[in-house]
Amino acid sequence: MKYNLVACDLDGTLLDDNSNLTEKNIDAIKNITSLGAHFVVVTGRTYFEIPDAVRNLECIKYIIYSDGAVAVNNNSKEALFSEYFSNSLAAEIFNLLDEYDTMIELYENGYPVTDKKKINEKSYEYYAIDPNYRDVITQTRVGKDNLNEYVKNTEKTEIFNVFFKNLSERTECMRRLKDIDDIIFTTSMDNNIEIMPCNVSKGKALSRLCEMLNISWDKVITAGDSKNDISMFSASDVSVSPSNASGEIQRISDDTGCSNNEGIADYIYKKYFA
Questions:
Q1: Coil vs helix vs strand at 212
Q2: Which of 44, 46, 100, 150 could form a Cys-Cys staple with 169, CB 3.0–4.6 A?
Q3: How far is CA 48 from CA 15, 23, 142, 229, in A?
Q4: Nearest residue to 137 via CA among 51, 221, 49
Q5: DSSP designation for 119
Q6: Residue 22 has pLDDT above 90, yes or no
């Protein structure tokens, strides 16, 4: 067998536009893993944002979440590795983000935490959050009365995800984030920024997992549709983008398959394994 591992993003890639894992993709994942290969989910979501249909699929043994901050054995729920912000660095980032008109989320211990007053449809509309993602936010966010005080005391902040009202403020914030040491940042939506510790990315986490599993990069296929997926493209022999990905992502990837609604896992199985 040429490939031993498939690493796949969720939103815009494995999941359809309604955040569902289709039966076609479930069958493909089962077919890939039945051949002895691993199918690894690599997502910007926290662990408990991942749909039950994905987390409960026993043949998905490994999940990398929060943009690579944490990897877990999905069967035993044992963390394989994790990286967190220090309290002081988390507070510094929060104070910068709080200068802007934003909805700030911090991902902590597998859960997304945000301002309780902003978990509502009015806020989602105000911050132009993708309508297909709003139900996920409502169902999974942990609301806090005083997020500023909360962030000072938390010990396991994995990443920050922040939605901006004004794109000009987002651009300015990105410029200022470059002056903060020991962080990196990326995006997965038109109006967000995802901020991680400097040694965290999807690609670094995938490489670390492959090392643990003794799988070399030339035995790996990756699939993703957003900028936060680019880092893992270089950690694989073949990178696949769905047809709904931007032109930039399609140009970077080695192969462009079907859309996320048509079943990217099915496409990968039929082209690279069947």
A1: helix
A2: 100
A3: 15, 21, 11, 20
A4: 49
A5: -
A6: yes
Cα distance between residue 217 and residue 233, in whole Å: 10
Whose structure tokens read 């930039």?
Answer: 248
Residues 6+ apart with CB under 8 A from 216: 210
Q: Where are the alpha helices (DSSP H) in the chain?
A: 23-34, 52-55, 87-97, 121-126, 131-140, 147-153, 167-177, 202-213, 230-233, 247-252, 264-272
Distance of alpha carbon 228 from alpha carbon 30, whole angstroms = 26
User: Cα–Cα distance between 172 and 33 in angstroms, integer?
Assistant: 45
- pLDDT tens for each residue of 145-165: 999 999 988 889 999 999 999
The first and second tokens of residue 41, run together, are 């989910």
Torsional class of 103: left (φ above 0), alpha (ψ -120 to 50), beta (otherwise):
beta
Mean pLDDT for the chain overall:
96
How far is the C-alpha of 85 from the C-alpha of 113, rounded, in Å? Answer: 15
Structure tokens that stand for 51 in this block: 């749909």
Distance, in Å, from the CA atom of 245 to the CA atom of 256, rounded to the nearest integer, reads 9
- Cβ neighbours of residue 149 under 8 Å, at least 6 residues apart? none
CA dist 194 → 72, 94, 153, 266 (Å): 20, 12, 21, 29
Spatial separation of the C-alpha atoms in residues 222 and 229, rounded to whole Å:
9
Q: Which of 15, 260, 4, 42 is nearest to 135 (CA)?
A: 15
Q: What is the mean pLDDT of residues 110-114?
A: 95
As given in the structure block, the two tokens for residue 187 are 């995006």
- The pLDDT assigned to 20 comes to 95
